[in-house]
Amino acid sequence: MAIRLKVEKRVDVPRWLPLATSIGSVVLAFIIGGIIFKIVGGKPFVAARFFYQAVFGNWAVFSDTMVKATPLILIGIACAIAFKMRLWNIGAEGQFYAGAFGASIVVLIPIIPLDSPKVLVIGLMMLMGMIFGAIWGFIPGYLKAKYKVNEIITTLMLNYIIINWNNFWIFDKWSDRGFQMTATFDRVAWLPRLADYAKQFKAFSGVTLHLGVLFGIAAAILVWWIFRYSRWGYEIKLIGDNPEAARYAGINISKNIILVMAFSGALAGLAGMSEISGVVHRLQESISPGYGFTGIIVAWLAKLNPFAIIPVSVLFAGLIVAGRELQPAGLSFLLQGIILFMLISSDVLLRYKIHILPTDEETA
Amino acid sequence: MNSLAHAVEMKDIVIRFPGVLANDHVSLTLRKGEIHALLGENGAGKSTLMNALAGLYKPVSGTTKVNGELVNFNSPRDAIAKGIGMVHQHFMLVPTHTVTENILLGMDEPRFFMNLKKFNKKILELEEQYGLSVDPEAKIWQLPVGAQQRVEILKTLYRGAEILIMDEPTAVLAPQEIDDLMATMRSMADQGKSIIFITHKLHEVIAVADRVTVLRKGKVTAQGEKIHGMTKRNLAQLMVGRDVVFNVVKEDREAGEVVLDIKDIHAENNKGLQALRGISLEVRSGEILGIAGVGGNGQSELAEVITGLRECEGQIEINGEEISNKPPIKAINQGVSHIPEDRTTVGSAPSLSITENAIMKGYCQEPIGNGWSINFTRAGEHAQDLKEKYNILAPNVRTPAGKLSGGNLQKLILAREISCTPNLIVAMQPTRGLDVGAIEAIRSLLLEQRQSGTAILLISEELDELLSLSDRIAVISDGKIMGTVIAEDADINEIGLMMTGSSGERE
Predict the structure, then answer these.
(1) By CB atoms within 10 Å of each CB, which of A192, A265, B96, B342 scores lowest?
(2) B347 to chain A nearest CA, in Å?
(3) Chains A and B: how many Cβ contacts under 8 Å?
(4) Interface ipTM
């Protein structure tokens, strides 16, 4: 019996549907990825097991995945808050570097004696990371608010400026014996890792997960609250949906552009700090494999929902981790592409209802 | 082809949307060479029926014959092939292209070389035939709305349409442009085109249509009645199913203290030209001051300078407090409510919920605003109250505002602006584009506000509305107030004269 598709516009979207379509898309993407893997001569089930092993296999590798997910969570949230207001901050990469620089100078100058308590050093590094990230967001925000300069261009360009600014310091002033990196930071400037407690808890040995992941979770809770309950979040949503209406409602749009850009920059800066202090423990070149750009994709895939950003970040972190292990290495990019494709096309299901009817049904 | 057949014969059309029966066994017959009005309130199913005829929707059941031939359209292309053209309410033109380029868009000819000269001439000939004047080489963005509409009509004529569907063509036009349009419609009908004219303005139906079909809640209440001998009252009854009181009752009321005091205001419009040239006005509490005038003579700018949305020179005081050139929040805090001209682009946020739209003006104030946070439970209750009190039709308060019909959205905006107990309401065209039922509701609400002591500045292009609601009427022309009259003993001719720019006598 032949069938016929009937497409209808949705009036109301059921609450469970966005989640169901997102999960469905990811599952479908893996199935398609597997089929392609089979066609090129691989063994999809073996690869899937390997993939699983490489990402979630044991606590140590899962912690690796989470370490990679941490900056993605923070940057994803940073992007989400800007995107909610339709501010196209694609400068998270630069704000990440600015944050890393701000955190590093606490140790490198040093701003605070390195025999101070760890809480103080780390606290100051967080603060400086966020301030520097915020400045790097404030500049394009101010230019847009006062002179209507397109933020896409300025945020993008500022990325290159800060990366080269960093390079100047690590190549020249703070170079460690001529290498393009600074010397390893004093232990006092390291974020606590689970591995540090291996003596007390055997299971933690070699587990690299650091405190930064909690920054990400805290940021998710904070931004969720802002969107859901705060006055500021309401203003952001209103400006994003209709700036004319927001102006009419008495909202100061310029002020909000600057605030949101600075806030977004501060979160991305915190990601930079957490990476410096939790993972690399020094300032060096290429501290980010493009987190600032992957974070943009993460924010969109999570539909700007701060909590959804966490699992999406873990998924993308998994793809990054697995990409190192899987051969051919391109497979992980292939999967990323298919997932993206699936998620974007699944949007149709949110906007339309699709009925499958037998063709011979009488429709009177 | 049967030359005696009707141009269009739709029979027992049923169209269903989720939760709504938009057309319930609707029939409509369009004779050749006639102007057939399709009348009905917002949401009565007029546009739905016409979209089905234009091939955009597929009916669940029913038959459609065009020139006596049974048709079954799968796309607008099929409908165009049968000579059906639709002039949409929202124009579908490329602003940076010329008139000719827009008309040729999507056609098979010209193929590769754009011999625009040749086509310009063709289009000019078409213009002459139907009395539609517009420069074929002008770019769309340079044209006023009326001319853009003529381009839309030319587009359908160029495609060989014999049957024209015009979806509320007058909603966007100024009074003179409406007259021009009606003349064009007449000339097209006289030359054998058949026209379906969707509207909810009764006097237009009487002025231009030959016959009328009336829809109410998806059903036909009058099918192809002759217009001759019908009155506005007859039509209104068919539309809303009850006797509409057009002359809302205005009680006597002494005006109180001066609330709005404007002295010698000058302001520019968006193009940087002088739009307001020295306007002075006073509105007292419990008084409605009507502003009459042909659209585009400074009305929008006047509303915007009072609400803080536009910069100006001069003095604007609300209850003695200077508010000119202050951010909009200042006017809001002084109790100025604003019913903007444009409901969708200024008055509401389409993808936010009814609740979120309902608190746009009051989200900072207790009990909804609470320091840094907003109490959304309270906000939801507030929205629910407004929804019930003002009879806003929507599934629930979480529905996005963009899904409301024009009338319901306007009720929501009005409800929001009134619920904050304003000192002054600046109402710009509050009933434009609404159906009879909604117009009546909104006019009554404004009078209630007047009764409770609010000062109201009512800017409208409908003289009837101004005369029945206002206490005084000031006439604006070219950014100047030409004169002010007491509404009760106003002489329409005098107002009309002042609207054209001749000075009237001051009271």
Answers:
(1) B96
(2) 6
(3) 86
(4) 0.82
